[in-house]
Design brief:
With 329 residues, the protein is of the alpha+beta class. The protein is built from 8 helices and 12 strands. A hairpin with a 2-residue loop joins strand 5 and strand 6. Helix 1 runs antiparallel to helix 2, helix 1 packs parallel to helix 3 and helix 2 runs antiparallel to helix 5.
């Protein structure tokens, strides 16, 4: 017989998913409207990259349109899926703010590029004044603040009753499982922005200079949302954005001496977010707060910040006791 200890299903996030999609739809409509207004006044190719206010990168009109629309659709889809499926509810308002910020920043760049090229016969003569950068950033910040306002108040984190036991009473011959997802909106936003910037640079300036940005996004995103699982085999950490069999870390139950739960201060103890290593310990810390701390049989510790950590630790201790009893027998 198998039982499962899992969190209650999340509430329907459809409304907030659509709220996150709105800015991308608006930007696409505005971008399409500007293009239709200036289509017969554009040179081909377009000036799409600038250095010291002068054009130094060019793209065909169809290529620029296709790349811009594909990037907006891809980012809108990623944000929508994260909000609908992956991110804990208290983080959603800030992720929606990131949707509005990102879409406005990209939309400003794409629309301004079309307008700068209008009525120019030779694309090499196009100029982009430096003040466009702070103006674009201001527009994006305003849009991000609007998105945060529209998202409303963040729901509170669920509170756990005090006095959790250090062991779970799982009858002999039965197994139980526990699983929770922990996400870091700042890391998700950073990964999406790195990938988005890499795609823009790749489309406009070539894929070689974009490689560093794309690699950074590919490294950050798998660490930004992780499912933590405890079962009879031990503790496992799996990126939610990668195929199910991929593991960031697995600690077999026979390597666990004892598990506990406590508050973890990510900067004070580990110096930041992400997968961290320090003397005598390592861990995946995506925020400060409740976490599981596992003491291994070699004396080292591994920590992971996650909700309902006391239940996970108690179940790990139950399985560790069974493993030690089997070895002793």
């Amino acid at each position: 017989m198998k039982s499962a200890l899992r969190p209650a299903p999340p509430s329907d996030g459809s409304a907030r998913t659509w709220l996150a999609a709105v800015p991308f739809v608006v930007v696409i409509v505005v971008f399409a409207g500007i293009y239709m207004g200036v289509a017969d006044r554009l040179p081909d190719p377009l000036a799409t990259h600038f250095r010291d206010e002068r054009a130094d990168g060019f793209s065909s009109v169809p290529g620029f349109l296709t790349g811009s629309l594909a990037l907006l659709l891809a980012l809108g889809s990623v944000f929508g899926l994260l909000i609908h499926l992956r991110v804990p509810a208290p983080h959603i308002p800030w992720l929606i703010a990131g949707c509005y910020f990102t879409s406005a920043e990209l939309g400003y760049v794409f629309c301004e590029t079309l307008l700068a090229n209008a009525d120019v016969s030779d694309a090499s003569a196009v100029r982009e004044p430096w003040w466009q950068l702070p103006v674009g950033l201001g527009v994006a910040l305003f849009a991000g603040a609007l998105g945060r306002l529209l998202a409303g108040a963040a729901p509170p984190w669920p509170r756990r009753a005090p006095g959790a036991t250090s062991r779970l009473d799982v009858p002999a011959g039965t197994t139980a499982g526990w699983s929770r997802t922990i996400s870091s909106p700042p890391l998700i936003m950073l990964g999406v922005l790195l990938l988005g910037a890499g795609l823009v640079v790749g489309i406009l300036a070539g894929w070689f200079p974009a490689a560093g940005l794309l690699f950074g996004g590919a490294v950050v995103l798998p660490l930004a949302s992780v499912r933590v699982t405890v079962d009879r085999r031990g503790l496992a950490l799996s990126p939610t954005l990668l195929p199910g069999r991929f593991r960031l870390r697995r600690i077999p139950v026979d390597r666990i001496a004892e598990a506990g739960s406590r508050r973890i201060a990510c900067f004070a103890e580990f110096g930041g977010w992400g997968y961290r290593i320090r003397s005598g310990a390592s861990g995946l810390v995506l925020r400060s707060g409740e976490g599981v701390v596992v003491r291994l049989t070699n004396g080292r510790e591994f920590a992971v910040t996650v909700d309902d950590a006391s239940t996970a630790a108690a179940l790990l201790n139950t399985y560790a006791d069974r493993a030690q009893a089997r070895q002793g027998g």
